[in-house]
Amino acid sequence: MRWEEFALACPELAGRGEERLRARELCLVGTLRADGSPRISPVEPDFVAGHLLLGMMWRSRKALDLQRDPRCVVHSCVCDRRGTEGDVKLYGRAAQISDPELRAAYRAAVRARLDWEPTEPDYHLFAIEIESAGFMSFGDERVGMAWDPERGLRRWEVTG
If you write DSSP's letter for every residue of 22-58 in order, what string do you get? Predict the structure, then answer.
């Protein structure tokens, strides 16, 4: 489901995810290489027109991975070894975006954030279609959360 639909289905987890992704302006995306082994790469996320979008350099390995196999995980960056800020993981598929209006809106969002924008057609753009998500925090709020459309949101206290 699109980010907008995920935010309606699970606002608590989506809110935490958006907060962390916007604050860092960076996430990690896990993809699958042609031989099936994992690859993890940094990407700058943007929220545009109800989508979580990931732009990538033209012909980058991670983009080619997603063109071949759209399964992926998006992970908020954790900068504290204790995990006190909490981290979000979004599991799903990357859908390549070719719609000119959405691509233009993405470029405008990047320009507003960076005072620069990618040029057409020399970049890849993917929307993350979320299938499940999780959150874990070892800070003042020691909480774990998991969500999927079948079971909804589950919460538990993190111990240890």
Answer: HHHS-EEEEEE-TTS-EEEEEE-EEEETTEEEEEEET
